[in-house]
Amino acid sequence: MSSTPASTSSTSTETAGSSGTTTRSGGGSSQLQTSQGNTTIADGVVQKIAGLAAREVSGVYELGGSAARALGAIRERIPGSSQTSGQGVSVEVGERQAAVDLEMVAEYGVSITELARAVRRNVISAVEGMTGLEVTEVNIAVNDIHLPTADGADQPPAPERVQ
User: Fold this and answer.
1) pTM reported for the whole predicted model
2) Is 145 exposed, middle or buried (0-12, 13-18, 19+ CB in 10 A)?
3) SS3 category, 161
4) Whole-number Å distance between alpha carbons of 108 and 149
5) Which of the four, 57, 77, 93, 114, has the lowest number of CB atoms within 10 Å?
6) Cα dihedral sign for 148, 153, 154, 159?
């Protein structure tokens, strides 16, 4: 190996592996592809991580568009069926990168821009931290606002009309 410096960016380093090959780290490398083997992560894994991370953020009422929520409500009533945690979450996963699309319902009164920023930050942190994939984008579609009286929990019971 020559002693001339490598002409790479300042965030990239080169090391000689035990087999004499050069491995780059930093600057776009992946911990998933090493000289000892490759690790692949299924789309469903990234989808679950992103969905759970989005739900952790205060101000997110639920994930999914109106059709996905209606299908989820029907699925809940069928014995033996399982609720998919990917409802409202779609992902594209490559060898080193992932992109996430979220559909969600926000709580009334929450700043949507601040909510989107917090969700994006939490999803990126969770996916990158757990998988080693670089998250290239998190697209968020806010499809509805949840009003406190919409679920009936904050309303007094309606008086009986017939006695």
Assistant:
1) 0.66
2) middle
3) coil
4) 10
5) 77
6) positive
CA distance linking residue 155 with residue 15, whole number of Å: 65
Residues 6+ apart with CB under 8 A from 11: 26, 27
As given in the structure block, the two tokens for residue 81 are 């069926």
More confident of the two residues 85 and 73: 73
**DSSP H or E run through 142:** strand 134-146
Pair of tokens at residue 110 = 């929450």
More confident call, 64 vs 26 = 64
Reference 131, options 87, 103, 95; nearest CA is 95
